[in-house]
Amino acid sequence: NGITYDIEEYLAPASVLICSKCMAIGHFNKQCKELNGTCKICGISCPDLRQHSCFLVSKCVHYNGEHNSNALKCPIVKTFRAELTKKLLFTKISSSSTAATKFNRSNYHYDPANFPPLPNPQRWTTNTNATNSVVTKIDELINSMTKVNISLERLISKNDQY
Questions:
Q1: pTM, 2 dp
Q2: Is residue 82 left, alpha or beta, with left meaning phi > 0 and alpha meaning psi from -120 to 50?
Q3: Of 2, 6, 16, 104, which alpha carbon lies 20 to 30 A from 47's?
Q4: In this predicted structure, which of 36-40, 66-70, 94-98 has the lowest mean pLDDT?
């Protein structure tokens, strides 16, 4: 009952960098140039977040919406993510079409001189002494089994006589 679609390639939505210090989009904490930190919940900026007493009322610094500043559901974060994904898709498509154009323009000629010759195949060497000893051992085992079978047949026939 399902529908199947042929796809050439799946490109996952781009990951968005949200700074854990200032809650800005597009960089990490180590790259942040802000002096004060910003609370991800209430959006208040303060010199030391460890001493900040948050009111626990969500307010986004990007949108002033009622969600945390690092929430992926924020419309500003969603827009940034969509634009980044489109940019990545465009870059991917344009680079692959450029590569295809370059590939189509190239002429390739096979020249056996460009490939080194393969070495001659080597035969497996076997140790004939080891092989002979194995064969001898197998022959001895077969002879022993034959003797055991003969003895067993005699016992069975004697048992049948009684």
A1: 0.47
A2: alpha
A3: 16
A4: 94-98
